Amino acid sequence: MPEKKSNKEPIGAVLVVGGGIGGMQAALDLAEAGIKVYLVESKSAIGGHMAQLDKTFPTNDCAMCIMSPKMVDVGRHTNIEVLTNTEVIGIEGEAGHFTAKLRVKPRYIDLEKCTGCGDCASVCPILLPSEYEEGLTTRHAAHRLYPQAIPHAFAIEKTGLAPCRDACPTGQRAQGYIALIREGRYEEALRVIKEDNPFPAICGRICNHRCEDACNRGLIDESVAIASLKRFVADQVYSKPRQAVEPLPRTRQERIAIVGAGPAGLTGAQDLVKLGYGVTVFEALPVAGGMLRVGVPEYRLPAELIQREVDDILDLGVELKLNTRIDNLQELIDEGYDAIFLAVGAHEGKKMNIPGADLEGTMISIVFLRDVRLGQEVELGNKVSVVGGGDVAVDAARTALRVGAEEVTIVYRRSEAEMPCRREELEGAKEEGIRFELLTNPVRVLGEEAGRVTGIECVKMELGEPDESGRRRPVPIPGTEHVIPTDNVIFSIGQAAGLSFIPEDSQVVSSSWGTIVADSETLACGRRGVFAGGDAVAGTAFVIEAVADGHRAAASIHRYLSGEELPPLKPDLPVVKMASEEAEARMQELKFSRQGRLGMPALPAAERRLSFEEVELGYTAEMAQAEAARCLQCGICSECLACVYTCQAGAINHEDVEQLREIGVGAAILVPGFEAYHAELSEEFGLGRYPNVVTSIQFERLLSASGPTEGHVKRPSDGERPGKIAFLQCIGSRDQTHDYCSSVCCMYATKEAIMACEHEPDTQIHVFMVDMRAFGKGYLEYYRQAQKNYGIKYTYSRISTLKEDPVTRNLIARYYTDDGRLQEESFHLVVLSVGMEMSPQVRELGQTLGIELDEYGFCHTLEFQPLETSRPGIFACGPFVEPKDIPETVVEASAAASRAESLLAEVRGSLTKGKDYPPDRDVSEEEPRIGVFVCHCGSNIGGFLDVPGVAEYAKTLPFVVHSEDNLYTCSQDSVELIKQRIHEHDLNRVVVASCTPHTHEPMFQDTIRQAGLNEHLFEMANIRNQCSWVHSHDWDRATEKAKELVRMSVARAALLEALHKVDLPLHHSALVIGGGVAGLNAALSLADQGFPVHLIERTAKLGGNLRHVRYTLDDADPQAYLRDLIDQVESHELITVYKETELTNTSGFVGNFSSRLRVHGDERAVEHGVVIVSTGGQEYRGDEYFYGQNDKILTQQEFEIKVAEAPDEIARVHDVVMILCVGPGTEYCSRICCAGAMKNALKIKQLNPQANIHILFRDIRTYGFQERYYRQALEQGVIFVRYDDSRLPQVTANGQLKVRFWEPALAEEILVQPDLLILNTGIVAAEGAQELASTLKVPCGLDNFFLEAHIKLRPVDFVTEGIFMAGSAHYPKFLEESIVQAQAAAARAATILSQETLSAGGVVATVNAEKCTGCITCVRVCPYHVPVIDPSQRGAGGILGAAQIEMAACQGCGICAAECPAKAIQLMHYTDAQVMAEEKALFEKVPAT
Amino acid sequence: MIVGEQKPLEEIKELVADHERILVLGCGTCVTVCFTGGEKEVGILASSLRMATKIDGQGKVFDEQTVQRQCEWEFLDTIEEEIKEHDLILSMACGIGVQAIVERFPRARVAPAINTTFLGLPEEHGLWTERCAACGECVLHRTAGVCPIARCAKSLMNGPCGGSQDGKCEIDPEVQCAWQLIYDRLKAQGRLDQMLEIMPAKDWSTSRDGGPRRLVRQDLRID
Amino acid sequence: MNEFEPQIVAFCCHYCAYAAADLAGSLRLQYPTNLKVIRLPCTGKLDALHVLKAFEEGADGVMVAG
After folding, report:
1. A1478 contacts C38? CB cut-off 8 A
2. What is the pLDDT of residues A57-96, one digit of tens each?
3. Which CATH number is B2-117 given?
4. Less CB within 10 Å around the terminal CB: N or C of chain B?
5. Which residues of chain C have a CB within 8 Å of the CB of B50?
6. Minimal Cα distance from C56: which residue of B?
7. Residue A242 carries which DSSP code?
8. pLDDT score, position A1488
9. Domain ranges (residues) in chain B
């Protein structure tokens, strides 16, 4: 129907949602017909489910081999924009004018820069179950879905920030180094730690590790020991002697002063030096490291480690001035530093403001610690009390033990739970015998007269309301005063910065807390150019915060000096916070079990009290790897940056963020595909529990040569070959939760069974099924072959449960045999034939777009408009509409394209574009001048053979005038370089030695065309896929072979010739043969798209078989539809209808056919560009079961007419028998008769609910949603009885009609005396199909149905270009299927008719007439019937009659050239000379270099 | 057309055994069409011989050439130099070609690489059957266009012999009985009565029995 | 030292066998370097002469895959 036209011009673009085979077909048809296409795919590559298949039935073609060329075409089509990782989040507007809103998820790898080399994946430490391999093997987080994926670029799977990273102030990529530790890659682990933190060894020891608190693993057992792992890495790497770090070049004029050489100051210094600034660090103490060096005791943090990490920073070129106290900030400003970073720390401690606090023997903890650390004499008594509960307090206590105190007590005013110190410190202290006086607060220090401390008077506390820190505020309990005797009191109640060096007038302000006031984002102080961070700003904080401040200050200073004021916006990345169920699910996925963290060995408490030896001893390598393996990989990608360091193309961008995009389109086609039923849900079959139960898709992968077992079927439990395999059908189809048939499982199971036997011929296979739904072309024959040639056994039985033998892990199934016995059988492997479902994402899509879906998520479409959704301008096809196989999906995709084209016909070509190239330079008279470019492909080639050597060698080859090696020859800069070299060296041939021409030849051809060379002057040597990758263990030989391959390519290149395409005119009209529903729809679709149509019909009436269809299962009116359709066709100004007309002759070729018609006996000629054959089929009428001898015996069609014309008569009918599969049904399945039987049985029941109906069948083939009518018939009491060839029903037709048949369930013969016997006789091809086939020179199959070019992927095309088929002429079809195929034929035809001219030539066969003897060999051998002997051409000896090959029709296969006995035919670009030059070059001795 | 068949390679190897420089010479007419001696077959034979003799440790040269028709001296003249440069011409033409070379170039040594088999037609791609015996006196107008001389094993002139079984010849069930074919065609055309006419004994003098034949067309002679 | 190493020429159809050889690379399946592939648009294009020529030039084996 013509859509309502709006005033505005529609948009000449279409959104295709789903990149499977259907989406690709729709995209290609549209793009070829002048419509711009946006192909949206939610995964990182197109290909869909078909990419996972091993073979396809019934031809056993390799699925990837047939699909891959289509994928490549989509990938490189100028007018198809492939949007991967993309979801549609809304479509607004109306047909012709939609705005589609898209969410493009980050890929983290730049599609433009990625060369697909795979180096990133090879270093990625993250392993995940491979979805492409259905979890049978693993893949990396940096991955390509499968080797042939389009786009070829890799992608990184990242779900967001891991919580460990999120929790860390410096954003340490903890998951990253953990993953690397698990793999034993310690240097790399340290490298990634140092990206964010210059102090791995330090933080590995003393960090408060918020990462561990955030760790999702904690939800299951215990968090991963992240800090200990960090320490382990540092220790591992530092166990080797330190290599001095190379100083960095100074690239910036500006000088920066940093005050304080603690963690904040040094981190800032490092960052600024890396940015090229001159940096001077001023430090008051004699050592660098700040509080780390003087505040943390040696037993926790050895000085040697601090020095190493400090030196690593200093060596970068930081100037450090020790013992240099800045007394006045102004002096520093006056010295002309361009920026100043104040990181002075908090080295001024304080005492409690209580009486006696200044008595002799009282101390401040940090002074005490510093003195001990710097080796100063410290005198302590036997008893020491430490007041405070932080790390410093504990450090002071434990240090006090080590310098000689015998009894050390920590006095803290709250309870243990509130102590801010690290738990492990606390535990360590307890182990060492430190006493704790908790909920105790000093009120006075007691002293002897001489002023020495003798004790502390304390009061007990209790916890009251929470204070601002969230901790409960301690409140003194009156009357609990008591004295703790002590010789020393060490106060550890907080520190402050010493800020006396900041003058009042400096605009640098301090807070009442004694800290510097700085902007919380930028750390800028009031005075421009002065920044402050670390403890000096925060008060006392943790090292990691100081480090974070250092980074932040450096970044702010850099922005400040670069004139950027604002802090940059940080992308808001989602944090992967898991619920415990999700964490459990992840454990399942990674196959982990519960296991707590590994403890770290420590010095025995007795030993450690006496020494400053490090207490914690660190993990061993085994322990570290085991602990690292506990990581749940929350973010998937660990951000370890290994890919970033490896990728030489600079394609990785971990900062990539989600983009929202809006595009204008005139129509949308939804082809999102199916999701396989999650058979784990059918727990009775044990998928996931029993290793030897696999799904059919997993089995598909086990069969595939590219699969996890390289095509050797092995059972998962033990890798043994399964000698006995069972297939269980209808898993997730035709059951309580699915009232439909998934349509494909019977056949794919048969295919998988056949392939398993092909792999291992003695495999025994048993298929358990409900019915065998072999309803397609060639399916029944395939099923029979499976039984006959492969011994595959089929049993009609539904298995209800499987048991596993725990010893052998075999599976035991119980079933009823065909003769009703209960049998038990054991199998090595069981395959579950899973059905199709709609994924939650697809349901969501439907909801988002506001289109109607059914309860299963399948799309509702309109009556007689099978692809129209409830929203005009949005079309649906493929399994989204109903479960279906590849060919039906491909047909629907083309048909949907046709519907969209009808809508957008007037704006065809408005948004598409061709490419402009400079004119080809004529090089035919020149000597060859060859340029050779040898690719390293990162390390993919260069890592396995001597690339520069190959490039050097190429220079010695004949005609080579230039040769070089490139890191990536396909990268944008190299491509530009090739163009430049062509001009510089006047090259006229180019050879690239790199990967495979499959992916890269078109791109390089495009390159040389841009440089003015004909694309056929290009040649590729495949030194990666066919050399470096397959000979990766033999450098010398791989290099040798690469040289040979280059030599061959150069030899061939020297003989290459420019080939030019020519533009031929064409007729933009179509001839449609047959005026049934297919022909009518095809004609109308083309006419609606603006192409004139000649529609010829043999009879006097249009409508074909549809004229006999009086009602449908859905109560629609087919006759009203037909009348409307005929009206539209007959009134369409572009359609000429010829009734009572036959085609007598057709000649010519695609675009230029001329035909003769006999119209009522008169001859007429028409010229047309394409042909659509839609001659239909007809109901078979034979004499089986006495048909024709008794008027109570009818065919289904006759019965239907009777129902329509005499319903009262049918209402009186009491007993009816239907026999299915009569006549041709024994040879092939007519596809539509089972549903016809259901329709008529339900009709009888409607007219007379009391009628007894017996349906005698072989298999009920109500595929897809027709299954629902089968169900209805069963529910309404129709009796179904299976028969087979061994017991055919017996009919007596003379006298009383009698039917006898065997009822297997009762095991007895039944006699029925029906009022009517209805025969389902099936459909045969229309009369005259064979004659038409010979007129058009197209093939018919055995049953006279026309033969398509390829059963799966070219289901409406003939092999001959420009001729298409639709409807039952191809195979028996339902009304909707015929309509769809007609529209598909129109879309395919439109790809030709929409061209302004036909482009012909290139790689085609050409005849040298002078040598042609007219022997007709070429005519006989061409599979496309292209060559003819042209009687007007002169051949060898000037004799009339030489072969002529129409270049527009030639497919370039070269068979004629290979067969021509006179060598008069050559296939251009593969001439004998060119092929033989390669052979000769291969065996030439390598010239000395 | 003239149908030929390549000699076994072993036999050809013997033919070239005493020669060093050999020209494998194809013909662009009948033997090209019957896939026996066209340019492609020349390439295959020459290549095979190069390898075969190499395996035998001989360093022979096999050059390749195809002329439009070996049975015309004028075409042979175009390769006179090449013929002289080689010590053996291995002809892939019919017997006429071989002799034409010999007559034109008396010093040339020529050997046939093919056996000229018969005058026939390709029934299918790859299947040739004999149709004409070149007997010199055509009777096809009387035999419904089926030649009893070439197609009957006994060249019978008046109906089949007793060996005709189910339309097949007794010598080979693959061979159709020519007289059955004649009968069928005449019957189909309603001319069966023609079979009753006795054909007189054939005069074989126009055939090989009369010795080598020659044909003179005074009207065409130029001198 | 004197072990015979056959040199093998493989004529492969661009669409299937050549792609399969590429896939073998993607899967890193290792095989000896003695095999070299010559790409044809279709193995139907393979002329008997090409096979003979390969042997004549020095091939020890010819593989045709398509």
Report:
1. yes
2. 998 888 988 898 899 899 989 999 999 999 999 999 999 9
3. 3.40.50.2300
4. C
5. 56
6. B51
7. P
8. 41
9. 2-117, 133-199
**What is the CATH superfamily name and number for domain A1179-1324?**
FAD/NAD(P)-binding domain (3.50.50.60)
Which chain A residues touch B if contact means CB-CB below 8 Å? 1411, 1413, 1415, 1417, 1420-1421, 1436-1437, 1460-1463
Contact check, Cβ <8 Å, A996/C42: no
Question: Cβ separation of A1461 and B69 shorter than 8 Å?
Answer: no
* Residue range A442-459, pLDDT digits in tens: 999 998 877 889 999 999
- Reduced to 3 states (helix: H, G, I; strand: E, B; else coil), residue B176 is strand
Q: What b/e string do you get for A1135-1147 counting C-beta neighbours within 10 Å, with b at 16 or more?
A: bebbeebbbeebe
Q: What is the DSSP letter of A641?
A: -
The superfamily (CATH) of domain A1070-1176+1326-1394 is FAD/NAD(P)-binding domain (3.50.50.60)
How many CA within 13 A on the CB side of residue A951? 19
Q: How many CB atoms lie within 10 A of CB A67?
A: 24
Rounded-to-integer distance, Cα A618 and Cα A291, Å: 23
Cβ <8 Å between A1463 and B38: yes
CB contact under 8 Å between C40 and A1034, yes or no, is no
Sign of CA dihedral A1292, A1297, A1303, A1308: negative
Residue in the structure block whose two tokens are 């129409």: A1446
Residues of B at the C interface, defined by Cβ within 8 angstroms: 40, 43-44, 47-48, 50-51
Structure tokens at A1075: 């005026």
C-alpha distance from residue A882 to each of A23, A862, A1113 (Å): 16, 13, 16
| Residues whose CB is less than 8 angstroms from the CB of residue A1213 and which lie 6 or more positions away in sequence, other chains included | A1244, A1248, A1251, A1315, A1316
H/E element, A214: helix A210-214
Q: What is the rounded end-to-end Cα distance, in angstroms, of chain A?
A: 73
The token duo for A504 is: 């009042």
Q: Residue A778, class by beta-carbon neighbours within 10 Å (0-12 exposed, 13-18 middle, 19+ buried)?
A: buried
Listed as ranges, residues in chain B with pLDDT below 50 are: none
Residue with tokens 């006075």: A444
The token pair at A181 is: 């530790």
Spell out the long-range contacts of A778-782 with Cβ–Cβ below 8 A and sequence spacing 24 or more.
Answer: A778/A58, A778/A59, A778/A1228, A778/A1351, A779/A57, A779/A58, A779/A747, A779/A1229, A780/A1227, A780/A1228, A780/A1229, A781/A58, A781/A1228, A782/A57, A782/A58, A782/A747, A782/A750, A782/A751, A782/A754
CA A1421 to chain B, closest CA, distance in angstroms equals 9
Q: What is residue A61's three-state secondary structure?
A: strand
Give CATH for domain A351-493.
Answer: 3.50.50.60
- Over the stretch B154-175, which tens digit does the pLDDT of each residue have? 999 999 999 999 999 999 999 9
